[in-house]
């Protein structure tokens, strides 16, 4: 027995074997096949693989490898914008923007990428108005005006007409988000049902021009990607198989046996033990990704400011990080993750239980209160949930634990049906507004609101904060804009229904003969195209 295998790992051995017994996949006793990369990852957060709808970590990561955008940002310098499908772009009045599509760009079908495909893709996102649509819609695009304001003027020229003057860099950063992915219009519309614009089909299929083509997605089981025959440059591995493995011990065992080539969700003690083993490579990447508690303001107790503050003071942030996620998360308590312009690294909250109890008494809950907590059943969130249950319980906040798959938790919070939930949020583009809008804007708190931000999901009605956050994005003075976001964060820390806990440090572990995986600071920037197995 390898010395780092735990009792948990031995119990998970059966899980590892079963996970690789699916049709078309080599059994667990065999090494992963040549020309195929087998990756183990928790993928139960996927709800759709349509770029106009997907808004989860794994879904956007896959979209980043299947589709291309007009512009993107390189991982070694994420503040810099570079062309992807666009060879040039610009504006003369900060309201009308023009993009020229590169000659020779192709979709996986072999058809050329045209400006009409780009226009259709952006119009489609605005018209369908799924979860990520607000990234596009905030420039004034709607179902009613998208046809007129997003248009191709010839085969290679795309014109976007915003409702008002806007910061050019802000628009470009937004178009670099996963929702800015370009789909092939003819392929998508040939599969349309009614007015869904191909959404039903694109949930489980692809029509892009990225390095890979989506061959199969089985919910909470696997994703299979095949090399795009028309990709330029061509990916180095012909097939990527991502297996859903919830238990990190099963991932570790599969990695050690050679059943899998890359493990994406190992926990701290496993990662630390592998650092000195030359059979493996440990790859860390700090991500623009936060883990936080969302407290629904529909819950009468959680709507009390004193209760929210008590929760923030009852949690042992440093203890959770040190004892559960020492290598995979860092304590962070502001809505802008470290690395984004204006991010605060201050940590105003620490465990102060007597203060928390006093605040609960002040709020009218001397005997405590009961709250349901939704959370993912996978590690490390399940372990963090149990720690939070104990810590809140010690001050009188009794949590009813509701474990589920991550997509169930996501669906519940999107429907505003949670009381308290542990969720994650990854920035969509490299600008402070990506998170500021999500956490501190809620222009319409009605159930049928167009922009369903995180603040909306928590039913947090904040007209003044919304107005100030909206004003920040239009400020052309860079230094003043950064100062505004810092002030917004400090206020948000004290009054919001969000308990921001941790910032992710993603760690992938590969076998030593596997190279080329590129982890990005945002999920859709993680690239598979360079992965190769010697």
Describe what is shown at a glance:
The chain is 32% helix and 21% strand. The chain is built from 20 helices and 19 strands.
Count of DSSP strands: 19
> How much helix, percentage-wise, in residues?
25-40%
- Radius of gyration, taken over Cα atoms and rounded to an integer in Å: 23 Å
What is the number of helices? Answer: 20
Largest sheet composition? 11 strands, mixed
Shape designation: globular
Q: What does the model show?
A:
There is one protein chain. The chain is α+β, with helices and mostly antiparallel strands and 534 residues long. The protein has helices at 7-11, 13-19, 57-66, 115-128, 134-137, 146-149, 168-175, 185-190, 199-202, 248-257, 268-274, 305-314, 317-324, 353-362, 381-393, 406-414, 433-440, 454-457, 463-472, 478-495; strands at 36-41, 71-72, 82-83, 86-91, 96-101, 150-154, 157-161, 212-218, 222-227, 239-244, 262-263, 280-295, 329-331, 369-376, 397-404, 420-426, 498-511, 514-515, 532-533. The strands form 4 sheets. Strands 1, 8, 9, 10, 11, 12, 13, 14, 15, 16 and 17 form an 11-stranded mixed beta sheet that branches. A 4-stranded antiparallel beta sheet has the order 4-5-7-6. It has a two-stranded antiparallel sheet with strand order 2-3. The longest helix has 18 residues, at 478-495. It is globular. The model is unreliable at 1-29 (pLDDT under 50).
Keywords summarizing the entry:
534 residues; alpha+beta; eleven-stranded mixed beta sheet; four-stranded antiparallel beta sheet; 19 strands; disordered N terminus
């Amino acid at each position: 027995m390898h010395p780092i295998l735990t009792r948990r790992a031995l119990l998970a051995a059966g899980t590892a074997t079963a996970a690789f017994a699916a049709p078309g996949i080599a059994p667990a006793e065999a090494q992963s096949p040549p020309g195929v990369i087998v990756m183990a990852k928790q993928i139960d957060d996927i709800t759709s693989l349509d770029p106009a709808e997907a808004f989860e970590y794994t879904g956007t990561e896959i979209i980043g490898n299947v589709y291309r955008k007009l512009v993107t940002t390189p991982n070694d310098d994420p503040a810099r914008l570079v062309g992807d499908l666009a060879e040039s772009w610009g504006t003369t009045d900060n309201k009308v923007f023009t993009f020229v599509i590169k000659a020779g760009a192709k979709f996986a079908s072999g058809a050329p990428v045209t400006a009409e495909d780009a226009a259709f893709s952006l119009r489609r996102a605005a018209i369908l108005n799924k979860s990520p649509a607000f990234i596009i819609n905030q420039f004034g695009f709607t179902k009613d005006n998208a046809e007129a304001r997003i248009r191709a003027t010839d085969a290679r020229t795309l014109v976007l007409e915003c409702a008002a003057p806007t910061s050019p860099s802000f628009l470009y950063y937004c178009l670099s988000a996963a929702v800015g992915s370009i789909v092939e219009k003819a392929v998508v519309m040939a599969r349309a049902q009614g007015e869904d614009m191909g959404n039903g089909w694109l949930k489980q299929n692809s029509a892009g021009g990225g390095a890979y083509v989506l061959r199969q997605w089985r919910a909470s089981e696997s994703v299979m990607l095949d090399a795009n025959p028309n990709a330029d440059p061509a990916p180095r591995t012909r097939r990527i198989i991502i297996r859903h493995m919830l238990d990190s011990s099963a991932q570790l065992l599969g990695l050690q046996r050679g059943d899998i080539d890359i493990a994406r969700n190992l926990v701290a003690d496993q990662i630390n033990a592998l650092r000195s083993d030359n059979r493996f490579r440990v790859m860390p990447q700090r991500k623009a990704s936060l883990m936080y508690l969302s407290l629904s303001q529909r819950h009468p107790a959680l709507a009390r400011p004193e209760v929210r503050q008590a929760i923030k003071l009852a949690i042992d942030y440093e203890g959770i990080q040190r004892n559960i996620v020492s290598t995979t998360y860092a304590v962070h308590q502001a809505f802008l993750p470290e690395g984004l312009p204006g991010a605060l690294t201050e940590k105003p909250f620490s465990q102060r239980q007597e203060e928390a109890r006093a605040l609960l008494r002040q709020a009218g809950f001397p005997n405590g209160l009961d709250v349901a907590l939704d959370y993912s059943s996978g590690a490390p969130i399940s372990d963090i949930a149990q720690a939070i249950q104990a810590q809140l319980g010690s001050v009188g906040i009794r949590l009813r634990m509701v474990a589920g798959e991550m997509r169930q938790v996501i669906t519940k919070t999107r429907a505003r049906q949670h009381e308290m939930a542990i969720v994650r949020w990854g920035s969509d583009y490299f600008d402070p507004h990506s998170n500021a809008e999500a956490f501190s804007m809620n222009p319409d708190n009605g159930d049928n609101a167009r922009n369903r931000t995180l603040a909306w999901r928590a039913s947090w009605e904040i007209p003044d904060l919304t107005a100030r956050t909206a004003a920040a994005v239009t400020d052309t003075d860079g230094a003043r804009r950064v100062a505004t976001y810092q002030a917004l964060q400090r206020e948000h820390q004290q009054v919001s229904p969000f308990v921001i806990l941790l910032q992710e440090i993603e760690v992938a572990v590969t076998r030593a003969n596997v190279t080329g995986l590129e982890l990005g600071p945002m999920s859709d920037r993680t690239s598979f195209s360079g992965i190769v197995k010697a």
